[in-house]
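tool=predict chain=A
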Amino acid sequence: MSQRPLRYAPDPATWDDEDRPYRAYSREELQRQLDGYDAVLSDAGDDGDGSDPSGSRDSTFRTVLRWGMRGLAAVIVLLVIAIGWLAVTAPLSRSLKPPTPPSITLLASDGTPIARRGAILGAPVDASKLPPHVREAFVAIEDRRFYSHWGIDPRGILRAAWHNVGAGGVREGGSTITQQLAKNAFLDSDRTAARKIREVMIAFWLEAWLSKDEILSRYLSNVYFGDNVYGLTAAAKHYFGRAPERLNVGQAAMLAGLVKAPSRLAPTTNLAGARKREAVVVGAMVDAGFLTPAEGRAVQPQRVLASRPQQLPSGTYFADWVLPEARDQAGEINTETTVRTTLDPELQRQAERVIRQAGLRQAQAALVAMRTDGQVVAMVGGRSYADSPFNRAVQAKRQPGSTFKLFVYLAAMRAGMTPSSTVDDSPVEIAGWKPRNDDGRYLGEISLARAFARSSNVAAARLTQQVGVKQVIKAARDLGITTPIPNEATIGLGTSEVSLLELTAAYAGIANGSYPIVPRGLKDVKGKGWYESLTSRTRRIPENVQDEMKSLLGSSLRGTGREARLTVDAYGKTGTSQSGRDAWFIGFAGDLVVGVWVGNDDNTPNPGLHGGGIPAQIWRNFMVSALDIAPVRAPVVVDEDAADPEAVENMAEIPDMSEAVDRAVDGAVDGAVGQAGDRLRDIGIDLRRGEDGSITVSPTRGRDRTPPPPPRDDRRPPDDDGGEE
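tool=predict ok
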């Protein structure tokens, strides 16, 4: 054996004090000792083949140790990552939140419920304070070893797998209560291996941080029991009319049995199935030792409430519109809440009635009624919500026809004109566009009041050109119109699309004397933020401009809107798009502003339909009921082409008795002719009574037709008739 070189043998003279014990050894002696150590080690490891296995063993040990440390480090890293993932994706606080948005019950302005949306949730329960038999019912049927496992139950999984194999399919699950809480609170319903792994990890996470009673409490507070009811508190009240603490054994067993198939076993619709499941749960409680056999036999089939609580509609046109705002106002809620709205139940019933009685045939209709400050008190978005929940009062964007002339005349009043100012009612050409009055008549120089009353198209086109398209657009924006408005002269005839709700709110601005009026459906409006306050300031309309606009709107009811006349001061405007595709009447009287739209969803023509017909009649009938006023028996009929409507109304007459009798007879005849004319007009026939008492029947000439908007790829205005109203 070769000598091992002495690796450390310095000169003893240079040794430090701590090396003193070794100074007695010479360099040669130290070398001999080292050689002896090497010989001993060599003999101890000699296996007879001349190899040196000690080095190999040391190398293997070091390799195993090195990989073991690496594995441990990897496990630690993965554990940290898993904990971080769980902390982010499965915060414990989420298990306290309901698995679905809680229900909001909308109340009318008088406090009566009108609709409920969302799940019925009860207050959280504390499992430690529940009677033992309530806890035991759920544990016996859902997770018998709940108090002994660590989130998963291997025995339960194997048992379920064995039963499923025997049944030839999935018939039984092996999820523990902890796993069910993990699934309900944190995961979706996908049936994938990855989701199952996440479920197991979250179950371990919950078991590590929560006590058994905390896990059971959160589970019972959010589990689904059918009938859109979540949580033990809500289920006990819904099915038995009592608190969870007062449930008897049979009631607790029935509720525990619902968890397996809540929709199918809900006792309100399947009492027999719920009772069979109750018996299964009672048997499980006996098997688990929670009940004695005698106590199990003593449990009777349970009864639920004799009648279900009053079922409110989950949706109406008004409820669909106001719900997002109601949830914003309610904020983050964990239990059922109520929100008071502005809806007036009586006015809503009247609105639905007049729509039903309007004789619409295949057409649809919408109505919005609001106070002058924007509080919506009635809303009908169609003939039947059950058949079509599409809200035509809010969601539909249609051409407003001559109702848009409100903004043209408002811009004119702002520019210094008055109702007595004049405008040329004669044919005009604007950049290749030739608007025409539908009846083909042109009256020359007329007052703005008369032009508005007869809804002259050429007058509106000339005014738009005179005050400027931008000023008309500004008037519309000021009064709250948010839909796109093209920078074209044709907008004065109502070629841009708007919603009934926005247009009605714009008319409310004139009635209120301020703008913009924002439609709202909640009684209590939360305070605005500073930015919203700066950007949505309410401005006053100058008193003289408001009076002038009301004068114009009043003259319209003596012209194209004569069918909407009331026995009180009323103001409004008719509107019709081309071929009767859209017919409108929007106006106000008293403290109500009401808009009505009639048309087809597919935008097909309605021959004979115009704003001064069915929409004006719907508006009038609603106002008569809403304001509780007497109807107009013999409305003044104005020939708008022969005389100024205001002149007819202001003519003074001193009648004698014979004239009074004549007027009474004429009024009765006019009333009868008017009613027959209304019906015939809907089918395209015009029935009129002349001054000499003769009756004339002729095809209807559209009253308020507005051309469709020009093609967007051709910026030239349309060269057609335009709309009358």
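Residues 1-42 form one domain. The chain has 24 helices and 16 strands.
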